[in-house]
Specification:
Elements lengths: L1 E6 L2 H11 L6 E6 L9 E2 L7 H11 L3 E4 L2 H5 L2 H7 L3 E3 L7 H4 L1 H11 L6 E4 L2 H11 L3 E5 L8 E4 L2 H9 L4 E4 L6 E8 L4 E3 L4 E2 L2 E3 L3 E4 L4 E4 L8 H19 L6 E10 L2 E8 L6 H8 L4 H9 L15 E8 L13 E2 L1 H7 L4 E5 L2 E4 L2 E4 L3 E9 L2 H13 L2 E2 L10 H5 L2
Parallel strand pairs: 1-2, 1-4, 2-3, 4-5
Antiparallel strand pairs: 6-9, 7-8, 7-9, 10-11, 10-16, 12-15, 13-14, 15-18, 16-17, 18-23, 19-24, 20-23, 21-22
């Protein structure tokens, strides 16, 4: 099987790494890719938002499957263009991807499907914003209705900050605050059958102890030793399957990766948000534990054959990912700084720890930073404590001037706190 992955981040590197280990994959391509992905896949320049360019590249390469990684190309309809070219694609249509592209649309789908979620208001005027904030009270949850690269949500007790964020958006969703721990659960679907993966937990805040601004994610771990063993089955029945069924009923079937961001509240599971693709950094830990070859799963979803797939196999190991971010992330990150120590991780910590590239590029023989979240250091171990120790040991070998990372990823879960 020849596969083309679209994207540039650590999520795409994780996908390419898993696909490169799959014996069914005979050729692996990525466009545009990054410095790390170049080690496992052949890179090609492409405008990832241009459906015609992506489908033309896929046709020229003669690939059997295209995997669209990021949300922006999906919302732009890239998967539709590839399908129209007669090539199997893992990723939802433009219409179905509105589940991530518009939070108001997602709320409408959830209401129709009976999916439990936070009460909310969709606001387009200052008066509507004031009314909604007053109705819910602090802490205030204000979400940009559209895509915002993981940074469109403000959760704050500061009324002025909540109003300022709302004022910077064309349309916002303001909702009640959900208490309890958050869980990310991915599911692969072909529009009918829904196949849940293993749950993970990520860390959105920039600083230790969940302080600082929201980011695209500073780390993740899986499994969740504190979670109810029935969680996955319960979410499949109450959230994932009803959502897929509702989208199919509307004539916009969802085929690809459905990501449910969940809050385990005192009143039960509630959906915080949906994404229409693999999440970063949770993908890194989920795929690290997946033993079933990845290509067959993605192809089954793309071709409507998930019902015929054997049950997924998972490692009993735990996995932890720690994100190394550039100076001043998530503000205006500094780029162009050399990264050293990558070879040391490969030589001393493999196979239990490895580096996945996100915001990197090559400058001659040197790998330099090229974005906010630069690297994801992922490690596995017999339990979370061992995986954490391996991940942070690998992080300590890497030098990026001014870089930052959280030191508490999976710390509480590892100690049972």
């Amino acid at each position: 099987m020849k596969v083309l992955v679209i994207g540039t981040g650590a999520r795409e590197h994780a996908l390419c790494r898993s696909l490169s280990l799959d014996p069914a994959v005979t050729a692996l391509h990525c466009a545009p890719g990054n410095a790390g992905i170049a080690e496992v896949a052949e890179l090609h320049p492409v405008d990832a938002l241009d459906g015609a360019a992506v489908s033309a590249l896929a046709a020229r390469l003669g690939v059997d499957l295209v995997v669209v990684g990021p949300e922006a190309p999906l919302v732009a309809g890239v998967a539709d263009a590839v399908r129209e070219a007669g090539i199997a694609v893992f990723g939802p249509s433009k219409e179905a991807a509105r589940l991530e592209g518009s939070k108001a649309f997602a709320k409408d789908v959830m209401a129709a499907a009976g999916v439990p979620t936070a009460r909310s208001y969709v606001c387009t005027t200052e008066a509507e914003v004031d009314e909604a904030l007053d109705a819910f009270g602090p802490p205030y949850v204000v979400k940009d209705d559209g895509l915002a690269a993981g940074k469109g949500v403000v959760v704050t007790a500061d009324l002025d900050a909540a109003k300022a964020h709302a004022g910077a958006c064309d349309r916002v969703v303001i909702e009640e605050y959900l208490d309890g721990p958050e869980v990310s659960l991915f599911a692969v679907t072909d529009g009918e059958t829904v196949l849940p993966l293993q749950p993970a937990q990520d860390f959105k805040r920039a600083l230790d102890n969940d302080e600082g601004p929201n980011t695209g994610g500073m780390g993740a771990y899986s499994p969740l030793p504190w979670a109810d063993p029935k969680l996955v089955d319960d979410v499949l029945q109450s959230v994932l399957q009803p959502t897929v069924d509702e989208l199919r009923r509307r004539g916009t079937p969802f085929s690809g990766l459905l990501y449910a961001g969940l809050a385990i509240t005192s009143r039960g599971v509630r959906v915080i948000e949906f994404n229409a693709r693999f999440g970063d950094p949770e993908t890194q830990v989920v795929l690290a534990r997946l033993k079933t070859p990845l290509a067959g799963i993605l192809m089954a979803a793309a071709t409507g054959n998930l019902a015929n797939l054997e049950p997924l196999r998972w490692s009993d190991d735990a996995a932890v990912t720690v994100v190394v971010a550039s100076h001043n992330y998530p503000g205006t990150p500094r780029t162009g700084d050399p990264i050293t120590g990558l070879d040391a991780v490969a030589e001393l910590d493999a196979p239990h720890a490895y580096v996945l590239h996100a915001g990197t590029k090559r400058d001659g023989d040197t790998v330099v930073s090229a974005g906010g979240r630069v690297l994801s250091v992922t490690a596995t171990g017999g339990d979370l404590a061992e995986a954490r120790e391996r991940a942070y040991r690998a992080v300590s070998r890497i030098h990026l001037d001014g870089s930052q990372h959280r030191t508490d990823i999976a710390a509480k879960a590892a100690t049972g706190a």
